Amino acid sequence: MNVMETKKTSAPARSGLTLVWIVLPLLALAAAIAWIFAADPLGRLDNGAPPVENLTFERTILNDRGLQLLVRAGGSEPMTIAQVQVDAAYWTFTQSPPGEIPRGSSVWLNIDFPWNLADTHAVTVVTNTGASFDHEIAVAVPTPTATSGQLWIQALVGIIVGVVPVAIGLMFYPALRNVDQGGMNFLLALTIGLLLYLLIDMTEEALEIAGETAALFQGRVMVVLGAFAAFLILMAVGRRHGTPTGLALATYIALGIGLHNFGEGLAIGAAFAAGSAGLGAFLVLGFAIHNITEGIGIAAPILKKRPSLWIFAGLTLLAGGPAVLGMWLGSLAYAPQWTAFALAIGAGAILQVIVEVSAYMVRSNARNFASLSLSPAVLGGLGAGIMFMYVTAAVVKI
């Protein structure tokens, strides 16, 4: 037998031995877990203390049948809901599905309570161990239902705060086409500035909402991991054919802004479904002005191109359309963990766009990063983008 034949026969043997050494630790782990559950060696440490219980309120629905609360158990053991108080009085309730609530599972609590319009109501859920969990209904208003009229109204609001501002911003395209390199640097820096503001705002909101999620979702960790994963995936996809420029870069900017507007729509829809805010004409106008610079940012990478009107329409819908979807989902099927995750994905997408726009600006200036970073046009654009978003955001903060 020659050397080559010896190598061929030994290779399968090594593969089989490697597989054995992978399987053996897994079998040992399975045996240890089975022994722990069968022998219960930790049972001797039980001193009779009640189990750790946690209950998260995820949705609140108010209608002519009373209150419906979606709650999720997050304790160390299954928990049983014994009583429900509303405004310090006990009320009858039904649970769907009935019985114990396993860890991580959710149930609906249907409370036959005659709530009063525009009043504040305090709900307390008491378990069979005596633990209590509080939930406040800030302003009692009927929860929107999925009627055609309601969806049209929400779509109209979403178009006004999402699609229209982006379209107005893109209308500056003809006036911006003749700018020199300094003007281009200003516009690109303006884009980076507004994206930086959106990144900070979206991250803050995602972390805030993550604090409302059940402990098992590890909300803040989920936000960080979701944003990091979105950033890496979009970087890999965006650079599979080289660094994005022109229309490709504008598309990524529109995508990042669209994900931000989706998260913004989720928050707006949830706020009005919960009755915690009223949407007046002044507030709608504030949202619209706040988002106008987004269209300018999308236009910046394609000023040297001649896209068709269909391209502009597509970029407008990509950036502004998700606000409509966000409002629908936020008002009809809001869940804090998914809202926080959606915002995290948007934050990761915006970070990817910031990196690509910055790289594009450096390449456009013969890679002279040192002088570019101190350029008045760049510093002015960066500051203008951040300040415009900050000042106009003061109008829409509730």
Automatic annotation (TrEMBL):
<feature type="transmembrane region" description="Helical">
    <location>
        <begin position="151"/>
        <end position="176"/>
    </location>
</feature>
<feature type="transmembrane region" description="Helical">
    <location>
        <begin position="341"/>
        <end position="362"/>
    </location>
</feature>
<keyword id="KW-0472">Membrane</keyword>
<feature type="transmembrane region" description="Helical">
    <location>
        <begin position="309"/>
        <end position="329"/>
    </location>
</feature>
<feature type="transmembrane region" description="Helical">
    <location>
        <begin position="374"/>
        <end position="396"/>
    </location>
</feature>
<feature type="transmembrane region" description="Helical">
    <location>
        <begin position="220"/>
        <end position="238"/>
    </location>
</feature>
<feature type="transmembrane region" description="Helical">
    <location>
        <begin position="245"/>
        <end position="262"/>
    </location>
</feature>
<feature type="transmembrane region" description="Helical">
    <location>
        <begin position="268"/>
        <end position="289"/>
    </location>
</feature>
<feature type="transmembrane region" description="Helical">
    <location>
        <begin position="16"/>
        <end position="38"/>
    </location>
</feature>
<keyword id="KW-1133">Transmembrane helix</keyword>
<keyword id="KW-0812">Transmembrane</keyword>
<protein>
    <submittedName>
        <fullName>Metal transporter</fullName>
    </submittedName>
</protein>
<feature type="transmembrane region" description="Helical">
    <location>
        <begin position="183"/>
        <end position="200"/>
    </location>
</feature>
